[in-house]
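In this supplementary section we document a worked example of the pipeline. Step one takes a protein sequence of length 208 as its only input; no multiple sequence alignment statistics are reported here. Step two produces a three-dimensional model, which step three serialises into structure tokens for compact storage. The input and output of this example are shown verbatim.
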Amino acid sequence: MSSAFEKWRQRLSDMTGLGGDQTKLHCQGCEQWKSHLLQYSPSVLFLMKHLKLSGCAVPPENIICAPCDPSAAAASSTPRSGGFSPTSGAILLCAGSFFSRSHMEQTLTHELVHLYDHCLFKVDWGNLRHHACSEIRANSLSGDCKWTREVRRGVVRFSKQHQECVRRRAVLSVTSNAACPNKEAAERAVNEVWDSCFADTRPFDEIY
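The serialised model returned by step three reads:
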């Protein structure tokens, strides 16, 4: 196990112990839902299987439940529910940020798509086109852009709803990339790779 992963896990472990009883309850609930998804979620099991077949098996301990930085969430227009660390290969699930187990399932699936892309396609996360492609795929394949999720966000569309959601969320994510100078650059990156990346559903046969 890499030293980078150990350092990242230790930092998250330290954070987990600082939030009092409420934080511990959130982390316990997160772990319970995570355990269920790793046993029963079709999308999670499918991605875990294909990651293993590709030589990138994901041990359960590499999927970490921990509190996320509330100041970062407050500064974002899209509250954070998870993340993927290219350096360590670990996935973070933000304990206390999920309104349902289905929400966690979509988040974990999203981050596993990033991990799949990182493993198979050697993504350069500082390259905006690379980042945009993985965000398009992760948002499209994870269930993040289901109509019910969009309604919960207060976004109601009846024409090309899925595509518009994927595009919007991909632009938001790329805009947050440290290498991205502004939203316009993020939009250009998403537009440049849109056709090929939206059509690429690997390892799924179709959009989940």
